Amino acid sequence: MVMRMSTLFLRTLREDPVDAEVISHKLLVRAGYVRRAAPGIYSWLPLGYRVLRNVEEIVREEMDAIGAQEVHFPALLPREPYEATNRWEEYGPNLFRLKDRREGDYLLGPTHEEMFTLLVKDLYSSYKDLPLSLYQIQHKYRDEARPRAGILRGREFVMKDSYSFDVDDEAFKRSYDAHREAYIKIFDRLGLDYRIVAAMSGAMGGSASEEFLANATSGEDTYVRSPGGYAANVEAVVTPAPPPVPYDDAPAAHVEDTPDTPTIETLVNHLNEHFPRQDGDWTAADTLKNVLVMLRQPDGTREPLAVGVPGDRDVDEKRLQAQVEPAELEAFTDADFEAFPMLAKGYIGPGVLGEKNASGIRYLVDPRVVEGTRWVTGADQSGKHVLDLVTGRDFTPDGTIEAAEVRAGDPAPDGSGPLELARGLELGHIFQLGRKYSEALGLQVQDESGRLVTPTMGSYGIGVSRAVAAIVENSHDGDGIIWPREVSPADVHVVATGKDETVFTAADELVDEMERSGVSVLYDDRRGVSPGVKFKDSELIGVPTIVVVGRGLADGVVEVKDRRSGERTEVPLANVVAHLRSLLRDS
Amino acid sequence: MVMRMSTLFLRTLREDPVDAEVISHKLLVRAGYVRRAAPGIYSWLPLGYRVLRNVEEIVREEMDAIGAQEVHFPALLPREPYEATNRWEEYGPNLFRLKDRREGDYLLGPTHEEMFTLLVKDLYSSYKDLPLSLYQIQHKYRDEARPRAGILRGREFVMKDSYSFDVDDEAFKRSYDAHREAYIKIFDRLGLDYRIVAAMSGAMGGSASEEFLANATSGEDTYVRSPGGYAANVEAVVTPAPPPVPYDDAPAAHVEDTPDTPTIETLVNHLNEHFPRQDGDWTAADTLKNVLVMLRQPDGTREPLAVGVPGDRDVDEKRLQAQVEPAELEAFTDADFEAFPMLAKGYIGPGVLGEKNASGIRYLVDPRVVEGTRWVTGADQSGKHVLDLVTGRDFTPDGTIEAAEVRAGDPAPDGSGPLELARGLELGHIFQLGRKYSEALGLQVQDESGRLVTPTMGSYGIGVSRAVAAIVENSHDGDGIIWPREVSPADVHVVATGKDETVFTAADELVDEMERSGVSVLYDDRRGVSPGVKFKDSELIGVPTIVVVGRGLADGVVEVKDRRSGERTEVPLANVVAHLRSLLRDS
């Protein structure tokens, strides 16, 4: 296969697109791989579509290798199945909804759990039919609030989604592990720098899940890692609960006047001034901060929630959101305070919250708030705090919640050392759905004894178009893209330089020989374009091996350049194809 | 590649789906290729998706071979470009429209003329950049009024659409011819029985166009063909105009009482009774029937049109519709008659229509209504007709229109004999768009002298998913599908029959050997399924070569069966792969 740049539908750009923030967006547009059609919606140009198809093919090969079977669902889907699982509502404004000419409700599929579950229900009926893994590589739609970052987070994108169906958890574990291994092979072949982290499952439901995150500063996900190998999405970090503290000799709780101390900082200053301690200063960590939020359930109802965290930590909204899904967080407004007159704004404490019957508000605390811990916290009266309030003696929360921020230096939950924070870009997500979808849609099979059992499911996604951008995020330099061999739009970029027709004749012959040998070529055969422009284009476009046919021709050699290292080798014309074939074989 | 039926996601059905009317729909569902997800919206199961991808690959190869370059546009498109070309309105209820979260208007692309034109405008600026042909293989959406016939006419479907851009008509002709040749190769490789017919271009605009129609009784298109090779879509048939008739000795036109003759039949009876002719009876062909319709323009305005055809022919609405596009036909209602009091319902004649100033209604006649022809027609008074009304002497229409029905036996316009009517299924459509889109969207390039010129365009479509169904329409028998080799989901269907494990061992080995030789296999390795069921499934599924491993094994032979001819050959085990490879090579 030869693409000739004299006729190739390609125009490289010298300027970054004005709306581009991340490097992959800039480079993919400038190098002529993609082009914006609407916000978050991109067209693939010839080089770009070739890369996308290469990525798809790698994904397909590895999915086939674990026995997953490829199917293809429509993108335009009826409302009913999504209604049955509540997702028609849950997805909120992220879902593209439309009506057909008969006013029937349809959606553009964001993922296809429902459709796969119904299809298996339609065709299968026995435990003997399982295990089963199905997948598709298909266009998906999500109406992102702020589509940006080019194809890294588009509103129409290509995804590989697969679903496993098993009779029990043990069999599911095998399906899950097979996918995990396949994902490792895929991301390795894509040349990505990535890490597998424990993760929450989000709106999909279910429990166990892992994310494959590319290391990238442009990543939207923050995750933590420890020297001992622990890695988790911030939402998934589990706070180790310290052991209970003895409190037999703790003084009784006592309410004190703390005027004008609505913030932790003013409170700590007041404490140090008016209630100095023997054993050192009061710090924010001695205080218990109670934060109120409203949860909006998918059915539209609102419910208050109080979250208690040590005063030296903020509530991390993303972590809290992950805990309360599918509900959405909303602010606790002044109107809400009016509806709960027992709450003293700025001085809220477990005196009211700890007793459900007092306020009716559910009260969940950080896992560090264990039995026996002693706190300074609001006394439910303006200008007053309570000191020496002991957890388990003076108040009992309704439970714990992972809502406090995670900080660099926090201990890893598995004891593998202090945590470090890093940014990552979600490439893939594998997770245990359990029986959420099979139950909601009535998928059952007969077991060995003829009883109906509900299969357990797994869901596995790869952002295929996003992976193209992630590769660029991971693999570029100041001059342009550097494609890994397996995804490059061509094996070799041949650049014919100079005005002499003999150069083009020699390059033509070389390219013909390459084509016959099965080496795919991007051939810069443009007349009247300067060598400088051609070299710049070759760096920008990023084919891993560049062959320059030009001045060396007089000596019977061409220059073979490695795009990544910049290393140049002079190779006799007659040996070029053999040289390339050995390069391709070795990489 | 081996697909084992013991684990393949496939269930064949004994019963036709209740909503299926056409044979391809029945067979593709029964054989487990596709499954309905919603009206006109289908999911592709593993075997089906394999066939679809085989068809796509053939299309891709032949498009690449003519130098067309593959790109990929989104399916979710912004309104603006379609507004600029009027198609946002023109498509009417066939277009899926939706809003995003910011209330922006979007559509699901039915075809992509606008997007291609804008992309070329975006990147290209010189005549040197042309010719250019771009294509994509992509999901398209049309909200059909009555989606039926399975994937033959779905609401979400796969289409190959390409567009050519040329500086002038001569260059366009080369692009058009190249596509035409590519289409011939594609449909030949798909094993289709098809015909190329002259066609109207429909809502796309432009003039010259041809359709590739599969011969199929389930086809929605009626076309005509002549013994001499003329073929045209009914909408495109051009009526040969007879030479003018001398009328010097024609009597003057005279109005006669013809009470109660509002229909052609009553009129002819009345004429024969009261105005008998010397030279034979009056027939419907002696009368001129004037039909009124309203045209609704895309901007919503309504305009009357009168169509005059010989009384022995009906007006063919599809032909008339094709002539007046983008306007839509609407009935001429009683209210409309009230607005034109000079029209005598049932007795309308050129007396009013022929003089534009009398009624203001445009009057177009059949091409057979040439100068000198003599007619009996309405006298614009209830109960009266005018006789001996001579075209060109007594009235002058505003022009001609191809609205009269085409009948078997009508002469071909090229003199190649009498026409015959046939049914066809549109597989592809190639047509000259002209400058409709480039003008509407401002695509211009500089010509050799630096002047801006507007490129001329061609548009070329293939219904890729429809082709899968068309192949089945063309190639099946009472037992099931018969795939042409190039699109078959596998090269060979190996059926292991019997209960003896040695059969399965031998079949396993044979299948392994096939796989090593690059022969793709659908392998019926199911235990506990009777040979009868397996044979029935193999006929239904339609892989062109079936290898039965069973009874013959004792003699060291297997049976190789040709699905199409039913011919069976006993082949020694050791020779099977060589035998198959020669079959695959020869076909």
TrEMBL record, chains A, B:
Enzyme Commission (EC) number: 6.1.1.15
Compartment annotation: Cytoplasm
Gene Ontology CC annotations of this record: cytosol
Aminoacyl-transfer RNA synthetases class-II family profile domain sequence ranges: 35-484
Gene3D superfamilies linked: Anticodon-binding domain, Bira Bifunctional Protein, Domain 2, YbaK/aminoacyl-tRNA synthetase-associated domain
Entry-linked PROSITE patterns: AA_TRNA_LIGASE_II
CDD domains the record matches: ProRS_anticodon_short, ProRS_core_prok
Transmembrane segments: none
Keyword Ligase included in the entry's annotation: yes
A GO biological-process term: prolyl-tRNA aminoacylation
UniProt GO molecular function: aminoacyl-tRNA deacylase activity; ATP binding; proline-tRNA ligase activity
EC class: ligase
Catalysed reactions listed for this entry: tRNA(Pro) + L-proline + ATP = L-prolyl-tRNA(Pro) + AMP + diphosphate
Keywords attached to this entry: Aminoacyl-tRNA synthetase, ATP-binding, Cytoplasm, Ligase, Nucleotide-binding, Protein biosynthesis
Domain remarks in the Swiss-Prot or TrEMBL record: Consists of three domains: the N-terminal catalytic domain, the editing domain and the C-terminal anticodon-binding domain.
Assembly and oligomerization: Homodimer.
Known function: Catalyzes the attachment of proline to tRNA(Pro) in a two-step reaction: proline is first activated by ATP to form Pro-AMP and then transferred to the acceptor end of tRNA(Pro). As ProRS can inadvertently accommodate and process non-cognate amino acids such as alanine and cysteine, to avoid such errors it has two additional distinct editing activities against alanine. One activity is designated as 'pretransfer' editing and involves the tRNA(Pro)-independent hydrolysis of activated Ala-AMP.
Entry similarity comment: Belongs to the class-II aminoacyl-tRNA synthetase family. ProS type 1 subfamily.
Alphabetical list of PANTHER family matching this protein: MITOCHONDRIAL RIBOSOME PROTEIN L39/PROLYL-TRNA LIGASE FAMILY MEMBER, PROLINE--TRNA LIGASE
Protein name, entry field: Proline--tRNA ligase
Gene source species: Phytoactinopolyspora halotolerans
Name of the encoding gene: proS
